[in-house]
């Protein structure tokens, strides 16, 4: 943490103290050092996000970098990378310049310093009859969901509404009939994700999927959610174990759920 940041933090803390205690406004006008707002990629950050920035910078002994990039093609608003010892987030030039996106990406790095790696190496013996891409994709989705589960909890605690976008996507998806014939586990993942983070629409999605002929996937989603909430992993190792259990359930004991395309 550099000196400027310490001063800034102290100034922000003072401001909050004054606002929080209903101190007369006069006190503020005496201050010549009005706190400089902390920004990343030109976006102002609230104190709870600045705290995360501080913790990351303290850990890496490097300032957090933010770069604008064109990520829209990949359908992403941002991503984080600290693999080279420099904490860096990238946000989309058009869709990513929002405090929520920046906080989200920062939390990926923050989780990393708290023992939850973003991209761990997960080895798994894949039987030949299972399609490699589909298998790898399932591993990644489950691990990522477990990670985002923690990110969502933290974002809500910071005063964000991280559910809004996903809820909109679910509602949009439910306007047409479910079609998941090639990768039926994807529907189970979506329902499971709703269950984990967005209880508000979970029962609606279950009804929609069941009516569309995907009752077995709803059942699979329930079992995945059961494993995930029972394990409730907060470290990489624990999350890898949970991921393995889920993958086992999907690919090795699900012949009664669906056959391969
Ligand atoms: Zn993320």
Short characterization:
With about 260 residues, the chain is mainly alpha-helical.
Write up what this structure looks like:
The protein folds into 3 domains: 1-36, no CATH class; 37-114, no CATH class; 132-252, no CATH class. The model is unreliable at 6-32 and 256-261 (pLDDT under 50). 29% of the residues are buried. It is mainly alpha-helical and 261 residues long. The longest helix has 26 residues, at 132-157. It is 57% helix and 7% strand. The structure holds zinc ion. Zinc ion binds at residues 104, 108, 148.
Rg: 22 Å
The class by helix and strand makeup works out as mainly alpha
Question: Mind summarizing the main beta sheet?
Answer: 3 strands, mixed
Bound molecules: zinc ion
How helical, in percent, are the residues? 55-70%
> Largest sheet, order of strands side by side?
3-5-4
Q: Give the H and E element order.
A: HHEEHEEEHHHHHHH
Percent strand equals 5-15%
In one word, what is the shape? Answer: globular
How far the N terminus sits from the C terminus, by CA atoms, comes to 54 Å
Low-confidence stretches: 6-32, 256-261
Mean pLDDT: 81
In total, the number of domains comes to 3
Total count of strands: 5
In DSSP terms (H or I, runs of 4 or more residues), the helix count works out at 10
